Amino acid sequence: MKQSGNTIDTLLSEQAAGWFVRLIANDLTLRERREYLAWLKTSSRHVAALLDIYQIHGYGRKAKLHSRMFSDPDPGANVIPFAPRGGVAVIPQQRQMQRPRSGVRRFAAALAGIAFIVVLGFVVHAMYFESRISTGPGEWDQKLLADGSVLRVGPNTRARWVFNDRQRTIVLGQGEAMFDVRKDPRRPFIVTTDIGDVRAVGTEFGVSLLNGSVVVVTVAHGKVAVSKPNKGRFVVNDQSGAVANQSGAVTELVANQQLVMSRDKVEPVKQVDASHELQWASGYYEFRDETVNEAVVEFNRRNRKQIVIDDAGIGAIPLPFTTAALDDPDSFAVMLAARSDVRVAYEKSGVIRLKRE
After folding, report:
1. Strand 204-210 vs strand 234-236: parallel, antiparallel, or unpaired?
2. Which end of the chain lies in a sparser environment, N or C, as judged by fewer CB atoms within 10 Å?
3. Which residues lie across from 355 on neighbouring strands?
4. For all residues of the chain together, what is the average pLDDT?
């Protein structure tokens, strides 16, 4: 479940714009400068994205060279400048006549510059000061984090994060999140919840909080360690780089494994199809013989509009092999209404009621 090339390019451009603003303002701390250098070394795509921003806004060497080539000579010099090939030389008298228009151009350029700074200000604010993400019913979102990791969240999710020189910590308050973690052995990536904590170095996995009382951890690639809640307190050995969880027992999961844990119970690790289990991150879900009742649970926990089943027999109906948009319970209801034994009623309160025909 890797990100598409276009999505990653967009996120890289946003992050490069953020570094561009900080570099031009020259307000990076020593730690932030190390993070900037680490970000550059992560991939040649990071370097290319930043160079694109510089070239677009005329900060490249070529732009500076052009400004020197066409700058005005000494006003007191008795010299008429050569024009660039195909251009027209401007003598001092002509310059005086063009000053009003030049002033207008300078004013327009100043306005454009202010607009550019305001736009990039919003970008850098979102990237460096809003270290949290929040979604409502039927909303999906994603972030490219400062270390290059990608965070994707589903509806009704609350998460925040704090990165430092020793570890990267994500606090998942509610909902569901998927993490494509940039490998950094010296800074473990820790997702902490009230039910349990998950530690990774470089991997792809999902964490879902169900009703605030059950956590489900699913690994798509790599390996993670799961423990009872410790609020992200992991200790890194400065010499070996090994990570120890102060809370004790750890269960390790590898690709296509899943763990379900509540406050007082840890279920056995089970083998799953991770690509299927984590499909929710794309906004779609492929039903494979799940019952109507199981499907309704998936829709109801992600949408404001709720589906209510009036008859237990309807809930037990197995679904055909089909893919549905998780933010569209209406289409799901229409599909069920095609059956001769199911009737769908829409209520003013926003409830979709499934009844026996």
Report:
1. unpaired
2. C
3. 343
4. 77
